Amino acid sequence: MADVAPVLDFETRITGGHHESLVLWLRMLSCTTRVENEIRSRLRAEFGITLPRFDLMAQLERQPEGLRMGELSKRMMVTGGNVTGITDQLVAENLVVREPAPDDRRAFIVKLTPAGRRAFARMAQVHEQWIADLFSGLSSDAKSQLIDLLSTLKASLTSPPTA
Description:
The protein has 163 residues and is mainly alpha-helical. It is 61% helix and 10% strand. The chain has helices spanning 20-47, 51-61, 69-76, 80-92, 114-134, 140-158, and strands spanning 67-68, 96-101, 104-112. The protein has a three-stranded antiparallel beta sheet. Strand 2 (96-101) and strand 3 form a beta hairpin.
């Protein structure tokens, strides 16, 4: 049997003495990073697009009336400068338009163009299949359990801590 090189990721930091919560955190981070890296690679190879550009288009696809730049920044959890740079690239490719906000001349609303909607629809369909493939090692029951457990964790993280 051939030697298999160990996969280096966040879990390589774990030693036997680490707290169970730290082990869980590093396991979640490792899984998330692996999925994200695979999706980044596939988006670039298949569509010539970056994950942040895909994410911005996904936000706009859900809001046909468009979103203000500040709202995009909040939803994507990145700086306004990052959103501006990504938007500039997508405007140059005629995938989004930037329009002045009717109630504030200083603000802009970003919307998908018809070409952007078509491009995103193609990418989203393929992206969804990639995600299904990456999670195919889990049964439907296991996925449901993980969703429930992570929902509980998320709720506990957004609630004020109890004494």
